[in-house]
Amino acid sequence: MKSIIVREAAGGMTREVPDEGTKLLRLHEHLTGLGVDAELRAAMPALLVHRPDVGLPLWVFVGYGGAYYSWQSAEKRHPVTDAAGAAMVLADYITGRVF
Length: 99
Hints:
- It contains two helices and seven strands.
- It is α+β, with helices and mostly antiparallel strands.
- The protein has one domain.
- Helix 1 crosses helix 2.
- It is globular and about 30 Å long.
- The protein starts with a strand and ends in a 5-residue tail after the last helix.
């Protein structure tokens, strides 16, 4: 997936803001580190997370203005600034330990 850096002016300063693809890539790396089967989709900025047992996979998007990873029809979310924490929450969610 191609990474794009968006530059945003903030109080006369320029800072780099990672795009959705970069944020999803960061989450993907943490999920695979936990042994979770997840796929980046080039055709759409989303991450497909496979459940370890029977069940439909989970789609994860970057939403809420780029501030959160969201899933389950945007009912569940976690800040993109904590990709490692989001991976842990998602791993628990797909195994049924946390709802």
